[in-house]
Write a structure and sequence with these properties.
Number of domains: 2
Number of helices: 10
Distance between the termini: 14 Å
Bound molecules: zinc ion
CATH class of the largest domain: Alpha Beta
CATH architecture of the largest domain: 2-Layer Sandwich
Shape: globular
Number of strands: 13
Length: 299
């Protein structure tokens, strides 16, 4: 079945078409501009993009979408995005019905977890957690082979586990959350604090570390230790045996030693050493494969 797969990010929209073997083709990306009416801007961009793709690919039968933030997946409503402030965007009405196609949506972190189960490195894991390491730190739990979304759809928010209550302020209003130590913002801020006047984007910090910069390498290791601490907390609570990491390319590799130290320090001694830690098998296309998986699973 040909499916149009869309990944809506904070600043860009990526799209791809799947074939009958569930391979993605014709992957393309357009920038998404923000403005005072983000809902209108994003809606128009999706309509325009979808219109052009369907024009060239009339064989498409379904649309799958990964979106940041909270979703009502049953009704294909994007309820809230903390980045853009978008609220209550009914993608079934404005995209699905407009083009006469069934549309299926899911939060991007959840969709990545589903994709990892179907196509990635977690095919054989009954219980695992997906973790996105990026400007935010998100997580999604798969328990007994199913997505566990919790009472309010907020399950898996590992970025807001408090790892040190004397830590820096977090965007959620709390102090010392994992995200305040190990997100890209936190790493960029830590570098700036240690090197006044030298604001560097995360890509540059990653490159510095790969070139052997000791200070930056230590920062990634310290951030990884906090990630490992949070991972151990989840593993101890739920007996989750596998964790898979995606997000900004190469960040997991730089945090790996710290994550291992944190897990070994804080996880139960009999099970902690056996916790599987892996990077995504889907590279930077995890959310597009997520959109595909959501559309394939959709009824
Ligand atoms: Zn927080």
């Amino acid at each position: 079945m040909a499916i149009l797969c869309l990944d809506i990010g904070g600043t860009k929209l990526s799209g791809a078409i799947s074939d009958e073997n569930n391979k993605l083709h014709s992957i393309s990306t357009i920038p998404l501009f923000s403005g005072h009416d983000a809902k209108k801007i994003v809606t128009e961009a999706i309509i325009d993009f979808t219109d052009r793709v369907l024009d060239r690919n009339p064989e498409i039968e379904r649309i799958g979408v990964s979106v940041p933030g909270l979703t009502d997946s049953e009704n294909s409503v994007w309820i809230f995005s903390p980045f853009s402030g978008i609220r209550d965007l009914n993608l079934k009405e404005c995209i699905g019905d407009k083009f006469g196609l069934p549309i299926f949506i899911e939060n991007d972190v959840n969709s990545c977890a589903l994709a990892e189960k179907k196509f990635g490195v977690c095919k054989d894991d009954e219980n695992f957690m997906w973790i996105t390491l990026s400007y935010g730190i998100g997580g999604s739990l798969v328990i007994n082979n199913n997505l566990f979304k919790g009472t309010n759809g907020n399950a898996g928010e590992i970025g807001h586990i408090v790892v040190d209550d004397n830590g820096p302020a977090c965007g959620c209003g709390n102090k010392g959350c994992l995200e305040a130590f190990a997100s890209c913002n936190a790493l960029e801020n830590a570098f700036l604090a240690a090197n006044p006047g030298e604001k560097k984007p995360i890509e540059e910090l990653i490159s510095k570390s790969f070139k052997g910069d000791k200070q930056v390498t230590e920062m990634f290791r310290d951030a990884g230790f906090m990630v490992g601490k949070a991972v151990a907390t989840v593993a101890n609570l739920l007996d989750i045996g596998a964790f898979v990491f995606g997000g900004v390319p190469l960040i997991y590799e730089l945090m790996f030693d710290g994550i291992s130290d944190g897990v070994e320090r804080f996880a139960f001694k009999d099970t902690g050493l056996n916790i599987k830690r892996r990077k995504t098998g889907l590279g930077n296309q995890a959310a597009l494969y997520g959109a595909l998986t959501v559309a394939l699973l959709g009824k």
